[in-house]
């Protein structure tokens, strides 16, 4: 029997149980990438219970890092370990991919130290990162775009007389929206009167809400996709059922059949921004379409030709 202040008394068994419960409650998480990744994704990549843009990409990069570092505690990861990871990973992945993974590891270590009290340092900082990949300069011509649409329309998953993949590609070509942003679309997000799509902060890559302006082609397509979904129960139902990988796979297959090389689904975003730049839209207008906060990043996406600029000078 043990007696504490204010006459509070515990048996030895109760005291031991209380101590055990406290130890379990306050026991620190294992300080490995695998153990802390779910916490990082929940605290950093989730807002109001909804996953932010880029969630899947970050999760996949964390998985790649975990495969290499396995059960090594963060405190024991050294710059030499990171350098070895870089060398080994570059044998299988592109420079840009490895660079993004190492940048994530750097942020992850700093987060673990500041937010979770892990006694680790940013050991990535002394390691020279792989050179950033060159900006994609391959854009699609209108003819190539039509060829892709013709071949992708054979997809089995159909919607309002066309394949879902085709509708998604058209929206990417017309709006410069990212794949994940398009797949998140519901009728409630579309303002047909204002001709805009409302994207919430958790649906964009930079976690900032924005309105996407709609061309006439995009507007007409969305009207047809929303036809028959006027009832309240459909307003928050996604327009598309395809998974991200399925969309990219359908696009790649259509490109292969069309003998178009050097492009991916994201090339549609580059192409759209370039097309509108060549029409004479200014930087502010282009940023409204693309959602870029940084003009430097916007410049990486706009591949306007000197000849097009010359035409605007007349």
The percent range for strand residues is: 5-15%
- In sequence order, what are the helices and strands, one letter per element? EEHHEEHHHHEEHHEEEHHHHHH
Superfamily (CATH H level) name of the largest domain: Intergrase catalytic core
At CATH level 3, the topology of the largest domain is hpI Integrase, Chain A
Q: Write out the strand line-up for the largest beta sheet, numbering strands in chain order.
A: 7-8-9
The average pLDDT value, as a whole number, equals 84
Quick structural summary:
With 314 residues, this protein is mainly alpha-helical.
Q: Could you characterize what this model shows?
A:
This protein is mostly helical. The chain folds into 2 domains: 33-116; 142-312, Intergrase catalytic core (hpI Integrase, Chain A, Orthogonal Bundle). The protein has 14 helices and 9 strands. The protein has helices at 12-26, 33-44, 55-69, 79-89, 95-116, 142-152, 164-175, 179-183, 216-226, 244-257, 267-278, 283-290, 295-301, 306-312; strands at 2-3, 9-10, 46-47, 50-51, 158-159, 162-163, 190-191, 196-199, 210-213. The strands form 4 sheets. Strands 7-8-9 form a 3-stranded antiparallel β-sheet. Strands 1-2 form a two-stranded antiparallel ribbon. Strands 3-4 form a two-stranded antiparallel sheet. Helix 2 (33-44) runs antiparallel to helix 3. The longest helix has 22 residues, at 95-116. Residues 2-7 have low confidence and may be disordered.
């Amino acid at each position: 029997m043990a007696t504490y202040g204010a006459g509070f008394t515990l048996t030895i068994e109760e005291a031991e149980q209380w101590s055990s419960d406290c130890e379990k409650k306050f026991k620190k998480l294992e300080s490995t990438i695998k153990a802390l990744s779910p916490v990082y994704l929940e605290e950093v990549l989730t807002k109001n219970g909804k996953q932010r843009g880029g969630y899947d990409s970050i999760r996949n990069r964390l998985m790649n890092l975990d495969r290499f570092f396995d059960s090594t505690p963060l405190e024991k990861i050294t710059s030499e370990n990171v350098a070895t990871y870089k060398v080994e990973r570059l044998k299988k992945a592109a420079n840009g991919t490895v660079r993004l993974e190492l940048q994530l590891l750097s942020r992850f270590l700093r987060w673990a130290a500041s937010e979770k009290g892990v006694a680790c340092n940013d050991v990535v900082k002394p390691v020279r990162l792989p050179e950033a990949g060159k900006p994609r300069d391959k854009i699609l011509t209108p003819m190539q775009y039509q060829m892709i649409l013709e071949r992708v329309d054979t997809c089995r998953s159909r919607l309002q007389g066309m394949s879902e993949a085709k509708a998604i590609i058209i929206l990417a070509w017309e709006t410069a929206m990212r794949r994940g942003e398009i797949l998140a679309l519901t009728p409630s997000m579309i303002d047909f009167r204002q001709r805009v799509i409302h994207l919430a902060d958790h649906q964009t890559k930079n976690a900032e809400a924005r309105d996407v302006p709609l061309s006439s082609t995009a507007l007409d397509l969305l009207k047809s996709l929303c036809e028959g979904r006027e009832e309240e129960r459909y307003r928050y139902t996604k327009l598309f059922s395809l998974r991200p990988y399925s969309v990219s796979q359908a696009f790649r297959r259509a490109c292969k059949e069309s003998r178009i090389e050097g492009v991916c689904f994201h090339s549609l975003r580059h192409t759209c921004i370039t097309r509108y730049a060549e029409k004479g839209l200014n930087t502010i207008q282009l940023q409204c379409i693309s959602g870029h906060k940084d003009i430097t990043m916007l410049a990486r996406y706009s591949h306007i030709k000197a000849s097009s600029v010359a035409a605007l000078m007349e």
